[in-house]
Amino acid sequence: MAIIPNQCFRHLRITLPRIPKLPSSSFSSLSCSLAQEDLEHTHPDSPNTNNPTSYFPKRGQTLELVCESLAFKGKGLCKVTDTGFVVMCDRALPGERFIGRVTRKKGNYAEVTKLKTITPPRDVVDAPCEYALYCGGCKTQNLSYEAQIRAKEEQVRDLVIHVGRFSQKELELHGIMKPIVPCDIQFHYRNKMEFSFGPNKWLPKELLLEGHNGSESYALGLHAPGFFDKILNVDKCLLQTGPANKVLEAIQDCWRDPQFCLSPYNVRSHLGFLKHLMLRTGRHVSTGLPEVMVNFVTSSYKPELLKPLVDKVASFPEVVSVVNNVNTSVGNTSVGEEEHTLYGKSSIAEILRGLTFQISANSFFQTNTHQAEVLYKLIEECAGIRGDGSEVVLDLFCGTGTIGLTLARSVRHVYGYEVVPQAITDACLNAKINDIQNATFVQGDLNKIDENFGNNFPKPDIVISDPNRPGMHMKLIKFLLNLKAPRIVYVSCNPATCARDLDYLCHGVTEQNIEGCYKLKSIQPVDMFPHTPHIECVCLLELC
Ligand SMILES: C[S@@+](CC[C@H](N)C(=O)[O-])C[C@H]1O[C@@H](n2cnc3c(N)ncnc32)[C@H](O)[C@@H]1O
């Protein structure tokens, strides 16, 4: 993710108080409270716009609560009896009655930790994963899938109304709000997982009370929720593909063997060798069979130490690539300063909308390939391309060019902009592999555009904008409002910033005397990540 200097948010800051503040007894305000937290989080300079409130539970106080619905970030939303005061609880599910302890004050609501369930949630199911209750990845695995997607759709509607300032009536009258598109495949859908090594297994309190002891053994797994230094050991992850799980199990079976002298990296002492294990699954372009890349991230380059693990994983026919990213920094990222190929190829392939994409260890690619097909089809439909090869597409936040390239076949030219230089290199490579000559990819920071932005491409007929969580910068909003392209397809992974940007584009920015000039035609939530709180949306805007 790009590091964004604080001053870039000056323009956004003054507009944030416009998010309506509703009485705490209103449910809509609850998810808005959390959305506000997210908007402030993404814009660190923003002022504190918290509402004073007469009732506030004390920190440490215990309360009996009922979870009413799921709010932004998948937190359970509850109200204190009699006062209607809002509290949020991680992992509380709709219908669940429980005892919670207040842990912190947050604007006009408080956060609680669940101590004990009194009545189980509605729509509860048995979570198939043994780690579901502790691992930070799947927060809602024990909620039926129908209830999960219902909750996601409600959140989007709530944010579009209360942050985006679109009325329920206009959403309904014009059929703007579309029903969420579910994901047909609810497990094993992730093509990429990153596990971390650590010196001690982390165990949740419940297991420690049962007498389990984790502190004595090394861990390979996922970070315990909220901890950068604690690893929940995981032998299998139900979100990743079957072949990737086979590889994970094989590594778990042998990496602690003392004869291999392999040590996990300790993020506190900065000693140790093995940092992360990244597993990516693609497909062979002709056979369609799965291809796995194994990426060992280590603190130094010692291929002889990795050899036993490399030999073990290379024995799987699906493993076609083993690479080693060497990251000598004390930071905890998986991108190395050097990359060495230890077995097979340095990249794997994937097919999306009939195009082939080369995926190297650190290149960005949609993590749910199956649902990316669905998402890209929706984007293409929204783009409403005539197909006569006359139109120009501007692909903002283009990553490795996947959206633009899937549209390139039916337009005159695609111009893609992206901040990460490696992604631009990959986008150009992807264009070449697919013999696409009418696409130009440019590296640049869309938070820092000036009046010259737009001089190097003709006026687009269609703008695709797919920003990451912070959404679009005010400079880009202003640019788009001046550009007046006939259509904007806004793809978003954060419904809160999406609702804010839709408001700017359609209703303008009053404080800056900027008028909106777009009409929201449709907003389509898409579930890309079952069992997690993440929500993707595809929105179509047309010039008024
Ligand atoms: C959600 S991804 C979308 C990628 C691509 N459209 C796709 O579907 O694969 C957002 C992209 O925006 C890029 N990005 C983030 N901040 C940016 C900025 N300030 N300027 C340009 N690109 C940025 C990220 O590197 C990332 O590739």
Automatic annotation (TrEMBL):
Keyword Transcription attributed: no
UniProt xrefs under InterPro entries: MeTrfase_TrmA_CS (IPR030391), NA-bd_OB-fold (IPR012340), SAM-dependent_MTases_sf (IPR029063), TRAM_dom (IPR002792), U5_MeTrfase_fam (IPR010280)
Active site (record annotation): 493 (nucleophile)
Keyword Cytoplasm applies: no
Any GO molecular function: S-adenosylmethionine-dependent methyltransferase activity
Gene Ontology BP terms: RNA methylation; RNA processing
Keyword tags: Methyltransferase, S-adenosyl-L-methionine, Transferase
Name of this protein: Putative RNA methyltransferase CT0009
